[in-house]
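Deliverable D4.2, example record:
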Amino acid sequence: MKVGLPAILGALLFGATGILASVWIVVAVMRGEYLTAIVSSGFALACLAFSVPLLKVIRGSVFPRGEWGAEGTMIHPDRGIEFPVIIGTFGAVVASVLFTAFFPFGRLDIPVPSETRVLLPYLSGMLVLVSTPIVWRILRSGGIYWLQLTPDGFVVNAGGVSPRVGSWDQVVDVTDAVPGSTAADDPNTVVLVLEGDVVIKLPGAAFTPEGVALRRLVFFYWQHPLNRDELADNRAFDRLRSENFRAGS
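Output generated by the structure prediction step:
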């Protein structure tokens, strides 16, 4: 399975940090430091929640969700990936707001290295400034990730940024790597290469194991325009679930 070392290390780091934060919740409550317990709960929730999607990706137990109609087929990530990320993001934002507001005044009993005590509130504040617009976009766009395929083209929502819209005629390739990139390739990514060297990326492993089936689905409808009428009903999603990408069936 091509999950990669970063996913494994990320799961271990988030999991271990979440456990440590959970232990500190108990310590804070026993000391009567209830504000500290609330902040620690936010960080523990975020870390443990972020570890869940990584564990699902590592195990390959990923199942997409779909809906369809006249406007095309909408494909959503596995609930066990999307919901923990949303919950973890909210937990991180709330905890960071409280940390930024109260830690500089000594109101929080959270052990941090002395050399970072001045820097951490600023980093926490930056996290709030960066994350808040992302949370707002997630609420407005209906999820962290989704992919809509229509007979005319596609709409890609990837990670809280504005959805990207394109037509099938613009597509040059559907692959797992950005052409000409010197960065390490992520085999779990769905990459749509458009005319003019425009690249749209979607974390395919959030939808299907290693993103393979999702990438093959997009490739299929790019290459087979006569089958795009399937995108108006359940047939496209059935292809994805059964991994049947033959034009004659």
